[in-house]
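Please go through the protein record below and explain what the tokens say about the fold. Record follows.
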Amino acid sequence: MGIVGKIFGDKKTDDVGGYVDLEKYVETTGKGTPTGAKMYVRVGEIQRYEDIKDFIDYVYGGNVLILDFSPLAEDEVILKRITNDLKKMTKEINGDIAGIGNNLMIIAPSDVKVERRKLRGKFA
């Protein structure tokens, strides 16, 4: 029995090829969100305009959202409407919003600002 076996007991682990699945050790809320942090970063994908409420609620809760809008990228009218609503929301809560690449945007809660310059080697 190794050191880890002595600490955690000699239970069978779900290791595959030397890797151990640690997901079962992460404490989560009832909704599958990890607990213990003040802020979370989550990736979301918006399929239709009506989904925006859930994403706004997530950011209002003090979390950072990376939103993938590629399913709506061809529908300029809906995309413009979503973008305008998200901009209004971030302005109301003193948050920030910025585009990342072609089909992603990052929406940050109050008192979090998104740096728009890319980091390059040696943090130039």
